[in-house]
Amino acid sequence: MAKQRPVSRPKNLNLLSIRLPINALVSILHRVSGFLLFLVLPLLLWSLQQSLQSAAGFEQVRALLAHPFAKLILLSLAWAFFHHFLAGLRHLAMDVHWGTGLTSARFTSKLVLIGGLLLTLLLALQIC
Prior knowledge:
By secondary structure, the chain is mainly α.
């Protein structure tokens, strides 16, 4: 019977302690933001319907969105939208082989992260 060599396996499978490359982080956040936007779509459509139905419905939605917790949720959704949009543009550019090198991929990943946060901050300054 031949002696088998031991298989080299990773020693640390704790996903919270593994340091992901920035490209992987942007890709994962792109999926998370798309899922988040998909989940809240029915709520957004309901609030649009309520606000267009009558003046009282509009005032109800307006009062609901004036609450600080609602503003925090809206800012989270705004970040999800901005990040998903910018990461989607990045993916489209990579589909036509622009920015596929390691250096440019890292740079565009940083641009997506910073751009999403800056756009969210600008919106936060407008609504608060």
